[in-house]
């Protein structure tokens, strides 16, 4: 299996599916898209790790981001209050020429996430930036929870609102004076939660229907909604890709775990196959 080699590969437009594991993608993609599929190894098991290890230089990219961790706000990942327990002193604005905060402008409060059509709308509204840039990235939130058919997303809503409020409330001076002791405590607590299988499952239960949980169990209930989320995204991508000129690739930042080796969802530096193996589909 080759490394993802995201920036070293030949493409004009890259569509990134958030938290998309290879096996689920390979089962359904050809109902929506035609192309050559490979399994590749990502650089990280979560978006912060993937971004930090992938974008290391200066890149002329128009990046349409449904994921709030990749934003134009200039707040380093290791200073974000919501779910980024890491030491990565990385900001998208230091490495990517144009970042469009679709996670903010295209947010749907009822769904608790960024629906696929918001990425398409942002792309059509910023054609000048696309034409200026060498390459374009579309970072969809799906198949990452929340699951669109439920319309009650909770965890991502907390991250989105937390980052937004942090940017509004903190001055640059205040950011520089953040207590390193407080940050260390926060990271220790979140790391402990990440290592607890029960805590991970509780986080996933927020996104599931209690009836489905009782009937099918956590893994089967989640996988069914996860695949549905992926199909919704692929249907939208099929429409968008028909408008794109040049070489188009569909891939993922990382995968998603459903109980393998006691891991649920995805966590920083958890390098197991369901999180590291991602699709790499070169469209015909």
TrEMBL record:
Listed SUPFAM superfamilies: Alkaline phosphatase-like (SSF53649)
Entries under Gene3D superfamilies matching the protein: Alkaline Phosphatase, subunit A
Protein name: Sulfatase N-terminal domain-containing protein
Organism: Natronomonas salsuginis
Native organism taxonomy: Archaea, Methanobacteriati, Methanobacteriota, Stenosarchaea group, Halobacteria
């Amino acid at each position: 299996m080759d490394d993802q080699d995201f920036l070293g590969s030949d493409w004009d437009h890259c569509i990134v599916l958030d938290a998309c594991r290879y096996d689920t993608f390979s089962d359904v993609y050809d109902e929506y898209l035609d192309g050559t599929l490979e399994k590749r190894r990502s650089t990280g098991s979560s978006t912060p790790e993937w971004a930090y290890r992938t974008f290391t230089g200066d890149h002329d990219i128009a990046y349409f981001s449904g994921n709030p961790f990749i934003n134009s706000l200039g707040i380093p990942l290791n200073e974000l209050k919501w779910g980024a327990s890491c030491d990565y002193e990385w900001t998208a604005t230091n490495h990517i020429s144009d970042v469009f905060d679709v996670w903010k402008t295209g947010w749907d409060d009822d769904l608790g996430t960024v629906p696929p059509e918001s990425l398409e709308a942002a792309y059509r509204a910023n054609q000048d930036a696309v034409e200026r840039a060498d390459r374009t990235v579309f970072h969809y939130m799906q198949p990452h929870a929340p699951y669109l058919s439920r319309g009650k997303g909770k965890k991502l809503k907390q991250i989105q609102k937390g980052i937004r409020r942090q940017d509004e409330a903190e001055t640059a001076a205040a950011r520089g004076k953040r207590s390193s002791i407080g940050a260390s405590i926060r990271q220790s607590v979140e790391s402990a939660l990440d290592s607890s299988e029960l805590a991970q499952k509780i986080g996933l239960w927020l996104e599931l229907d209690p009836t489905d949980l009782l009937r099918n169990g956590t893994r089967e209930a989640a996988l069914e909604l996860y695949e549905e989320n992926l199909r919704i995204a692929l249907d939208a991508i099929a429409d968008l890709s028909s408008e794109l000129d040049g070489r188009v690739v569909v891939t993922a930042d990382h995968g998603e775990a459903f109980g393998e080796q006691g891991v649920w969802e995805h966590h920083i530096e958890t390098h197991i196959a369901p999180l590291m193996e991602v699709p790499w589909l070169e469209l015909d």
